[in-house]
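>> received
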Amino acid sequence: MRGSGRLVVLVKPIKPLIIASSLFQSLPTKPTTNFLKMSTIITKASSTDGNNDAAAASHASSAIDFLTLCHSLKVTKRTGWVRRGIENPESIADHMYRMGLMALIALDFPPGVDRNKCVKMAIVHDIAEAIVGDITPADGVPKEEKSRREREALDHMCKLLGGGVRAKEISELWMEYEENSSPEAKLVKDFDKVLFSLPLKNLTHY
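>> returned
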């Protein structure tokens, strides 16, 4: 049912109750089976207590708000390519996804380097840009100020997610990459450089 800009979905059995944000305002009055399954999964993944309906609804709402914010990564084009006049430049999400794929398919990983961790790190390494945008050296923002803005943005996003294990993991992965403090971070930064060096003509295929 609808009300006050929110869609409330009851999943049988009644527990858990899903309260979705305005992201789902355009959905039909009767949600599809797939949507109900997805909502239940989000709630179970987010909740720390499956028997607490209020907590489950709150966690589900936080997860959806987080994903809604992350949507800007999909529609924000990378600044460097825009300034170079590249046709159909990649978005921030395009870039993160390609880095994740690179980590997934790369051969001959160095001994002791965790591939799964690299994939996750690649997926979240630019996630703060959902708020601050793609800041480049040409913007004239000092490196320390750029890091401060991104750190604050990341903290906000983790709070929006409701804290917990997943938010902590995202924060730690992002910080490792930012500080280049692990073998995985060093390798993912190398992937970033490789993607940057690919022929610019490839970007017109998006």
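>> The first strand starts at residue 2 and ends at 3.
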